[in-house]
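Standup notes
- DV: blocked on the single-chain target, sequence here:
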Amino acid sequence: MTLFRRSGNSLAMMDAAVRGLKDYMAALRIKPMLEEEWVWMDDSLQFELQSALKVLGEISPPLSSAVRKPEGYGKLQFVSGVIEDVRESAGSQLAIALKIQVGFNALDGD
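- DV (later): unblocked, structure below
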């Protein structure tokens, strides 16, 4: 079951969430905080999120109908994979790059 399914706004919600994350990452302005070997990460995360937005824009609403077609389902899988990659990168590689220690509570899913 998807959020906003009954109103038909699932794709709009997903787009807004990804766009918000992309804008948040841009507002952090992490590039100046990164050592030279990690500078690529800022551009990489922005690129991945922009790719997710592009593919989300190619999915025709409603989401419940789009995912019944192989093409729509594949696009949604791509977006899901990108979001998972961004989460993993931000949670591990970016934390290392910014010299942030991630404790047990941050990793246990609560």
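- Follow-up: Residues 52 and 79 are 5 Å apart (CA to CA).
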